[in-house]
Write a structure and sequence with these properties.
By secondary structure, the chain is an alpha/beta fold. It has 15 helices and 8 strands. It has 2 domains: about 50 residues; about 280 residues, 2-enoyl-CoA Hydratase, Chain A, domain 1 (Alpha-Beta Complex), CATH 3.90.226. Helix content is about 50%, strand content about 15%.
């Protein structure tokens, strides 16, 4: 069943009329070409108008869209030879965080590589990402994309493997945050996140992170310490979810829409603060409307971002990553108004 938000309803209704007209033309053999073209133009204009006026909360909703491509969807489209690796070798397997090895560069979605690079140009690549589920059963198995300590320890195990093997690392962020349950706290959730962040600062391989949906708190940052942090156009990235923020500030989670405006969660604001390094454009109407085009745009951004990093020395990669995170927010602070006082 197709899911959509209230602000998408006029678009969905118009697209349904367009689909009905196409089916009627096919069934009755009547030429409705002119009418179909007019409806197609109306749909396109409505999409442009709707998405040009999105507020902060509607963008948060898009980042959580149930039809949005998840980590595994992008992997299947761009890295068909991906081999998943499991377990933290300490407690168990966490399906909210997946990881494995694939081959760089990514392929074009739905197509075989037209001109396969030579063996010397093919590079093993470690991929780690949060993974949500679509059905009720999958959501429970994947814990709604909220990683547990064993998930972050699995990520650390794989990143250490990548460092020893000199493999570049690609991570996908898509989580409301790390799992806050008591059993996760008993197994050292905060320590696992802190250790993962610490480990990533010291890795001497290229690291690129892409926020493909929602990026929440330390659960996102635990696999997000990268040389370059990219973000899809309708993604969100924040220290806290709007609902939790509203609960803390105003003791009312229903004020999440107001909180989303204050948090500056969208890519444009985050670029100004130096939190992210680039914005990946999405298909008209969002990534959930065209997975193939979303993957194509992601591939182009990854190619442009990874290639320069692969030419840098290991020491420079590590030092530049540390410098990048230490400098976050300084550019915006330099232009902020200075408060005067007596």
């Amino acid at each position: 069943m197709e899911a959509f938000f209230d602000f998408e309803k006029p678009i969905v209704n118009l697209e349904k009329k367009l689909q009905d007209l196409r089916e009627l033309a096919a069934q009755e053999g009547v030429d409705f070409t002119s009418e179909i073209m007019n409806l197609e133009k109306k749909v396109e204009l409505l999409i442009d108008d709707t998405y040009a006026k999105l507020n902060s909360w509607q963008k948060v909703q898009l980042s959580r869209h149930p039809n949005r491509p998840y980590t595994r969807d992008y992997i299947d489209l761009l890295f068909p030879d991906f081999m998943e690796l499991h377990g933290d070798r300490t407690f168990g397997e966490d399906q909210a965080i997946l990881g494995g090895i694939a081959t760089w560069p990514p392929t074009l979605p739905g197509k075989a590589q037209s001109e396969p690079p030579s063996f010397s140009q093919r590079t093993p690549l470690l991929i780690i990402g949060h993974q949500k589920g679509r059905t009720t059963k999958q959501k429970m198995e994947r814990n709604f994309g909220m990683g547990r300590p064993e998930g972050y320890r699995k990520a650390m195990r794989l990143m250490s493997l990548a460092a020893r093997s000199k493999m570049p690392i690609l991570t996908f962020i898509d989580t409301p945050g790390a799992y806050p349950g008591i059993e996760a706290e008993e197994r050292g959730q905060a320590q696992a996140i802190a250790e993962s962040i610490h480990l990533m600062f010291g890795l001497k391989v290229p690291i690129v992170t892409v926020v493909i949906g929602e990026g929440g708190s330390g659960g996102a940052l635990a696999i997000g310490v990268a040389n370059q942090v990219l973000m899809q156009q309708y993604g969100t990235y924040s220290v806290i979810s709007p609902e939790s923020c509203a609960s803390i500030l105003w003791s009312d989670s229903s004020l999440a829409e107001r909180a989303s405006e204050k948090l500056k969660m969208n890519p444009t604001e985050l670029m100004k603060l130096g939190v992210i390094d680039g914005i990946i454009q999405e298909p008209k109407g969002g990534a959930h409307r065209d997975w193939s085009e979303a993957s194509r745009q992601l591939r182009l951004s990854l190619l442009a971002t990874f290639e320069p990093l692969m030419k840098q020395s290991p020491e420079k990669l590590m030092k530049e990553r540390i410098k990048k995170f230490r400098g976050m927010g300084l550019a915006a602070l330099a232009h902020a108004p200075v408060a005067s006082g007596n």
